[in-house]
Amino acid sequence: MSTHETPWPAGTPCWTELSADDAAAARDFYSGLFGWDIDVSGPEFGDYGVARVDGHRVAGVGGKMSADQPSAWTTYLASDDVDATAAAVAEHGGQVAGPPMDIADMGRMIIATDPSGAVFGVWQAGSNTGSGLVNQPGGVVWNEHVSGDFEGSKTFYGNVFGLSVQPMPGAPEGLQSGMLARSGGQVVGSAADVSASSADGAGDGWVTYFAVADTDGTVAKATELGGSVVADPSDAPFGRMAVLAGPEGERFAVVQTPAEGHAHSDTPDADPTD
User: Fold this and answer.
1) What is the domain range of residue 145?
2) Which of 18, 130, 195, 208 measures 20 to 30 Å from 140, CA to CA?
């Protein structure tokens, strides 16, 4: 089991969170789909739900902060200093939705938008270190940044988080995609031009991939629970995948990874969150 209970290295996707109009209905959908146990906080934290698998944190489900906020999954990247990261976001052409804020003793965060328009969060760990289980059914297995401005996105995430883009193993020459890696070469996800993304139909922005034991069964279950299919199951080098939408249209991907490892297991150190 891939568990992790210490702060994630800076630049690593460390959490994923859904903002929904009807958070209670969203909790029912995802607990039914992934088998999550969801702990719901009190009103002081907006009745925020923390989803768990085998007792380990895997994702958050909560209400929206404003009426015009879209229903969507948001990827959070780890930071050792959120205030410095917020300044770097603004310096390199991004926008910060508000000043850094503390969430009790759990951590410090911002919500930001990169120059391509993709929304993401930044988390500086306190008592809550983010995802406690990855690469297992019900947990996050991969994160991909999809943009119509591949070169601009490479530059932004390089300047702000120190991430570089390495060639995607086996990809055709000239394809606008690559593996996102932090200092030292540790792969933390992928980046792609919207025309080259594996998650066909997921749209621009950060795409969250959840691990599942049976992609086809998960697709059938999602439609039964009130979700919809954006892209039918298909086989890819890293596993069988599909793109789905939840009850409010929020899009995400699921991947049935090979038994011997996680997505992109044939790539050295290709762990989406480690």
Assistant:
1) 140-256
2) 195
Please indicate, yes or no, if residue 236 is contained in any of the structural domains.
Answer: yes
Q: Do residue 74 and residue 159 come from a single domain?
A: no
Q: Based on the fold, state whether residues 249 and 180 are members of the same structural domain.
A: yes
In a structure prediction context, what are the per-residue pLDDT tens digits for the chain, which is 274 residues long? 589 989 999 999 999 999 999 999 999 999 999 999 999 987 777 789 999 999 999 999 999 988 889 999 999 999 999 999 999 999 999 999 999 999 999 999 999 999 999 999 999 999 999 999 999 999 999 999 999 899 999 999 999 999 999 887 665 555 677 889 987 789 999 998 887 777 777 878 999 999 999 999 999 999 999 999 999 999 988 899 999 999 999 999 999 976 544 443 333 333 444 4
Q: Which residues of 50-63 are buried (b: 16+ CB within 10 A; e: fewer)?
A: bbbbeebbbbbbbb
Number of domains composing the chain: 2
Residues 115 and 192 in one domain: no
Burial letters 181-210, b for 16+ CB under 10 A, else e? bbeeebbbbbbbbbebbbbbebebbbbbbb
What pTM did the predictor assign? 0.91
